[in-house]
Amino acid sequence: MSNRVFDKIxxxxxxxxxxxxxxxxxxxxxxxxxxxxTLKTTADETEKMLDDLLALKNxxxxxxxxxxxxxxxxxxxxxxxxxxCESARLLGADHQNALRVGAALECIHCYSLVHDDxxxxxxxxxxxxxxxxxxxxxxxxxxxxxxxxxTYAFEIVADELTHDNPAVRAKLVLELAKxxxxxxxxxxxxxxxxxxxxxxxxxxxxxxxxxxxxGALFHFSLISxxxxxxxxxxxxxxxxxxxxxxxxxxxxxxxxxxxxxxxxELGKATQKDADAGKSTFIDLYGLAGAKQRAADLSNEACEAxxxxxxxxxxxxxxxxFIVERKK
Amino acid sequence: MSNRVFDKIxxxxxxxxxxxxxxxxxxxxxxxxxxxxTLKTTADETEKMLDDLLALKNxxxxxxxxxxxxxxxxxxxxxxxxxxCESARLLGADHQNALRVGAALECIHCYSLVHDDxxxxxxxxxxxxxxxxxxxxxxxxxxxxxxxxxTYAFEIVADELTHDNPAVRAKLVLELAKxxxxxxxxxxxxxxxxxxxxxxxxxxxxxxxxxxxxGALFHFSLISxxxxxxxxxxxxxxxxxxxxxxxxxxxxxxxxxxxxxxxxELGKATQKDADAGKSTFIDLYGLAGAKQRAADLSNEACEAxxxxxxxxxxxxxxxxFIVERKK
Lengths: 327, 327
Description:
Number of helices of chain A: 16
Structural class of chain A: mainly alpha
Strand order of the largest sheet of chain A: 1-2
Largest interface: A-B, 54 and 55 residues
Shape of chain A: globular
Distance between the termini of chain A: 18 Å
Radius of gyration of chain A: 19 Å
CATH architecture of chain A: Orthogonal Bundle
Oligomer: homodimer
Order of helices and strands of chain A: HHHHHEEHHHHHHHHHHH
Largest sheet of chain A: 2 strands, antiparallel
Number of domains of chain A: 1
CATH class of chain A: Mainly Alpha
């Protein structure tokens, strides 16, 4: 798969550093390794931040603390916190502040998984290879743990520790609430559930659902750096466009993984959408077409960041990673 | 039932206005009518505010809008918005701003009822005389409607329309999140569920559960006026003490109503706590003792507001109403 902007940046930036690597593939590989290292570092820092924020000694009711920790810690790639930290770094915002926003966002992401897995929703027993929250605890506890994580996200963001300017904190809360609420993630979930009632959604319908369900949080993760740094309209616009393209590419790639991987590889059930009668991007594009569309979107995402030049190299690599990942 | 402070205020304030009413009972009755009028006006204004905030045209997914409206509109006494508006009025904060905070608080209160009623939680089919959200819609929709209402509360509060000072908005978000989260309402819910597992809780345990489960939101409703008005430490302290006493009185009165009323009168199932093996204030104080304790707390609540003098007459009347109400 080719990615023109990425290749160009790889050559521009790294012809000095990686002078001995004479072809684009090697340069790309070097950039990918640098990105993966940053992703890992951010994931570790996010884990530490969440571990502190969710310290059991801070809970009036230990069981709710245990259930919230169960679903917030040790989970996933922490792609959203990575985007928060990268957009913050790109615009010169404080890294510790960005980590707090990333942790809050992860609380929202994790609450949504806990509630989605409930018997009344997707009824999943397995999430990332371990029992889902309502299996490990019980349904009532899972509902409350989700509610607790959602609420805590806003407490974290509104706290003075997140930014010393209250206008920044209020803006972060507003945008986070919009991204996760009825015209964002929750609205997307509702449309997604309704889509199970009838087959043959149009491409527009599927894109609308995905933009709300996963795109809105991606969007927040990328503009949050601009909010923290009080960036320009152009910076907000560029990061917003990148987010939109990458979010959709991520979802198409998810549908590709869903048909190409086993439940063991993904750590969760596969082909549930098809079983539920929901249309996927594969139905609309075909497998090869979907892969191409994801690659194109990844490329367009990178193009949107042109104004940042080589400083955005981790975001270029992330856009590529998202469509090439194996889980 | 006697309420010393209330009687004193009634005499002090209204000996001019109600000069023809020569006994305390008549003065009290006049104050009660004035309070009930204010309560009704605030409820109507809150309803209008929520109707606007939850206008169906603003929803990407109509079904989530319908489910959120179903449980947020036309419900209850709106006691919490009343407290927001009264504490705001007492300290000279803008009434429209207070109505927005009251509407947000009502979104939180209503979400908690939707989730509490779910089969995995209290499994109630009836709420205020009509089918609960998951009966009227379905479980998945009820979970999402609760999530949507919770999230929307923070969007409402963080919006510039709530206050032009972002420090006030950030503080409101922080305190609202604390009051409704794992060390507030959600934590109290968890402890309450755990209490069903064993009988014979101590008075301290029951008070802790109630302080978290219902006290925390009462507390927020009363200090929010001081936040909006950027009040003094003394004003925060007085309103906080009033909230604590009134919150506990409210809960004890609830237990009294639970044994003295029929499901038809209350519009919901009664004696569920006793059936679930949970201890109630009646178990610990006896019926007469519980009534006396509620009356004492109501009196202490009023005493805490001494610094506001006659201006707090609606809050004095509210403290009395809470222990004397029939539903």
